[in-house]
Each structure stands twice: as C-alpha cells, then as structure tokens.
TrEMBL record:
Record protein name field: Lipoprotein
Species: Streptomyces javensis
PROSITE patterns from the UniProt entry: PROKAR_LIPOPROTEIN (PS51257)
Predominant cellular place of this UniProt entry's protein: membrane
Keyword Membrane: yes
Length: 274
C-alpha cells in the first residue's frame, strides 16, 4: 500500500510553522539521513510519478520514500525550508526564483524531470478566435504563472504584451487587446472549476490533468515544449543537495523507466525533460 498522505491546504497553511518546530531530527526530515525521504508534491502528475518510483524502483535502490500530497503552491516550499519534508517536486525555475525572493527562502533545484504544458481551455468555444468581445478569461493569480499565461496568449496573437516583459507581466502590460478581454485572477487550483463561469481559463498542466482534462487534446491553445523554461524539478533546501537519499531519488526520477512511465501514462500531456 502506498504511504501517501493527503493534506487539506488550509490546515497545512495554518500548521506550517508548527511543523517546523517539530521537524528537527524527526524521522523523514532533512536532518535524519537514515530515515525515509519525505517529498512534498502536487497530486498530479508529481505524486503519481513519485509513487511509481516508490512502488517499482525505490526498494532496489535502497531508498525509503514517503510522498506527501499538497494542493497549493506555497506550503511545499515552506515545509522544505523548515525541514518538515526533505524535498519537494512541483514547480519550475521562474516560480522558485520568485518564491525565494519574496519569502526569503533558499530552495534550490536538484534535477529537472518533466514539463506540463500550460493551456487555454473553454467549455464555450472550440478556438481562441471564437471568443466574443468582452469575454472573461481566468488566469492564475500568482506572479509567475499569470505572466506565463499572458505570454501564452501573446504567443498565439490573442493579446499583445509590452516588448521585453518578463515573469512579472500583468494585464497592465497588455498593449493590444482586440477583443477587449477581461481577466479574472484565481488561485491556480481553482481554474478548472471556473470553466463553467468564465469564457475560457488558462490552466496549469497538473491541475488540468487532475480535473480530467487532456492538455494534448482538450486545450484550444497549448504551450510549446521547445526551449521552454517552465520544466518541473526535484528541489531541496540549499545544503541538502548531497543527501544520499536525494541523490538516489534524482537518479531514479531521470531513469529510462520513469521516462517510459511518463510517456505511457500521460500520452503527451506531460513531457519528459531529460
């Protein structure tokens, strides 16, 4: 049986500091190199990939692995920083850089594993050019993913962004909006549920898959994997990169077996990045 812990986001947010107090030397924490490596992960696809490693590869490699599922984009880094977990697997480099800057954390990437293409979805139109004048498009509310969403729309001619805008782009940086689209900022996890209430939504790949959307098939616009900076990786608190458990997991996550699992399981909706 998989040793996977599902935790409600609101409880986690309130208890993150309390967890940190108890983490020092606790089994599975970053201080206990002989215990199981506890990894914080988004449920899909990250926890699924980790559970594949746990069920099929970890024992042979001498790795004890525990997977904790988190449904938000903040608690995994906070828990990694305070030692409640030994590593996390859910994010991309622009998001991590922004998080470290804003929260004063020092989380670092270990190994890149996969890309989840960001996509524009709609229950009301089949093509982006069918969006009506004044249509409402929901986008992620966090800084990096909102910029990523706007750049996706820019790349497909839906809007035009100010030249040179980076990972802090907001609707204020739109220089051309032919359809007069209105943008609704929502927490990333809420975006799939918003599709009945808005005309379209830009949804992160993990949340799309979790909501039984198939990015490769259902997205009316899909991010290209070519030269894409948003691949997801295993991350740890700085200084823990050489933890032997982390090294074992990094090797397993980039193994031929995991590459095959990703390709077979997600059919192009998640792409190996190694």
């Amino acid at each position: 049986m998989r040793n996977t812990t599902k935790t409600v986001t609101t409880v986690l947010a309130a208890g993150a500091l309390a967890l940190g107090v108890a983490a020092c030397g606790a089994p599975g924490s970053s201080d206990d190199k002989n215990g199981a490596l506890v990894v914080a992960a988004s449920p899909v696809p990250h926890a699924e990939i980790l559970n594949y490693v746990k069920d099929h590869l970890a024992d042979k490699a001498g790795l004890k692995l525990e997977v904790k599922e988190f449904t938000d984009y903040n608690t995994p880094n906070l828990s990694t920083q305070d030692g409640s977990v030994g590593a996390n697997y859910f994010q991309n480099k622009p998001f991590l850089d922004d998080f470290n800057k804003k929260k004063g954390t020092d989380i670092v990437p270990v190994v890149t594993v996969h890309l989840e293409p960001l996509g524009l979805y709609s229950h009301k139109v089949k093509k982006a050019d069918q969006l009506k004048k004044g249509a409402t498009v929901a986008v992620p509310s966090d800084t990096v993913n909102e910029a990523r969403a706007l750049k996706l729309l820019d790349a497909h001619g839906v809007i035009k962004l100010k030249s040179g805008v980076g990972n802090e782009a907001t609707p204020k940086d739109i220089t051309a909006n032919p359809k007069g689209l209105k943008f609704k900022e929502l927490e990333a996890a809420q975006l799939p549920r918003s599709l009945d209430d808005v005309d379209a939504a830009v949804v992160n790949g993990n949340y799309a898959i979790e909501a039984h959307l198939k990015p490769a098939k259902d997205a009316i616009i899909l991010e290209s994997p070519k030269n894409n900076p948003y691949a997801n990786f295993l991350a740890v608190k700085k200084g823990n990169e050489d933890d032997p458990r982390v090294k074992k997991l990094a090797k397993l996550l980039t193994s031929p077996q995991v590459k095959k699992f990703i390709k077979d399981q997600y059919q192009g909706s998640v792409l190996p990045s190694f």
